[in-house]
Amino acid sequence: MNIKQGASLQGLHISMRKVLIHADSIWKAHGLDGVTITSGTDSTHGAGSWHYYGLAVDLRTRDLIQAGISVSDVAKELDEALGKGYDVLNEGNHIHVEADAVGRRLEKGWDE
């Protein structure tokens, strides 16, 4: 696992450890040198962002794209590996992963 210079995981909630472990494993399974975290609790994000609560991370996609690996496929793999409790969003230049908000669980058809 790599952390982009300037990115911070200080204050990251323990529940996000699962994200980091699965993401790193998936990137390595695709022949890459592990995932790169581009943002955790650092930087500027939208109002109310889970980043500010230590409940979101951004993952670099540039390495996937350069290797000819589908970002959508990797995002789906990560979503399936994490299961309920997390949202995985392909935002093009990065994959955003956050603790699952109740509204999104309902959108996915989960009633828990």
3D structure, described in words:
The structure is a single chain. With 112 residues, this protein is α+β, with helices and mostly antiparallel strands. The chain has one domain (2-107): Muramoyl-pentapeptide Carboxypeptidase, domain 2. It is built from four helices and five strands, in the order βαββααββα. It has helices at residues 17-29, 62-66, 71-82, 102-107; strands spanning 2-3, 36-39, 56-60, 86-90, 94-99. Strands 1-2-3-5-4 form a five-stranded mixed sheet. Helix 1 links the parallel strand 1 (2-3) and strand 2 (36-39). Helix 1 crosses helix 3. The protein is globular and about 35 Å long. It starts with a strand and ends in a 5-residue tail after the last helix.
Q: What is the beta-strand fraction?
A: 15-25%
Would you give the CATH topology? Answer: Muramoyl-pentapeptide Carboxypeptidase, domain 2
Low-confidence stretches: none
The main sheet comes to:
5 strands, mixed
Supply the number of helical segments. 4
Rg on CA atoms, Å: 13 Å
Q: What structural class do the secondary elements suggest?
A: alpha+beta
List the helices and strands in order: EHEEHHEEH
Helix fraction bin: 25-40%
Overall CATH class: Alpha Beta
CATH architecture field: 2-Layer Sandwich
Shape call: globular
Mean pLDDT metric = 85
Number of domains: 1
Q: What topology, given as strand order, has the largest sheet?
A: 1-2-3-5-4
The termini sit apart by: 32 Å
Q: Please give the number of β-strands.
A: 5
